[in-house]
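[job 0417] fold request received: DUF2163 domain-containing protein
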Amino acid sequence: MTTTTTCRAWVIRRGDGLTLGFTDHDARLRFGNVTFRPDHGMSARALVQGSGLSVDNSEAEGALSDNAITERDLLAGLWDAAELKMWEVDWSDPAQRRLVFAGSLGEVSRSRGAFRAELRGLSEPLNAPQGRVYHPRCSARLGDGACGVDLSGPGLQTERAVEGCEEGRLFRFAGFPAFDKAWFERGVLLVLDGEAGGLRGTVKNDIALPGGGREVELWQGLGIVPKPGDRVRLTAGCDKRSVTCRLKFDNYLNFRGFPHLPSEDWLLAPQAGGGRGGS
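[job 0417] inference complete; emitting structure tokens
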């Protein structure tokens, strides 16, 4: 492999199996059953690789394209944690290549019709905390294997047509089913169809209005504003408290917190902890 015939090629594979290949060469390359195309306007910065467990520091950037990486797919999170590999390739003989990076996409930002994605190396998961956290509130995520709640069960979801939406953040509904107030706070709003189909947001406020209406506010506005008539699915939220697990979800046997732990004040000053002297 010579310097004059060396280019870079990288492949991105999403969780749903969609695979795209890119190269900074001026012509197509093909190896490993992947075609690497130069016409997507995507490039990658020089890699900074550490010898320890530090994250390999690099970025991929490029223009949003209807037939490659679209803004809608990025907003929907379809490219989150996508697998990425990068090679140095002799374009005159693609069999002569060297793998220089393997990892995944990290944080993705968008601006003025372009995107920028952080590249995370294979050592990134080693930086994540391991083991259980001893805390009064539950450590499970609602609906996961540790929690065990079936979110499709009765009373935990509802599907409605959008009637009013401001800035992709504030939704209003009339004739809403009779759910308790704040039932969907910390839950999820998922857009099911329309241009914004697949986008989701976390519910900040869920307010019951007079006359059976409902006002649902997201923490952050959706990148594409749903139109009236588009359907959304609202899923109940959980504040991780033991009483919520018991009364709202009837799931106390699977509660993953430690509600009877003494408070931090008692640990620092046990003599002021209401008679809990350690006996």
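[job 0417] notes: The chain has two domains: 3-125, 157-235. The two ends are 73 Å apart (CA to CA).
[job 0417] exit 0
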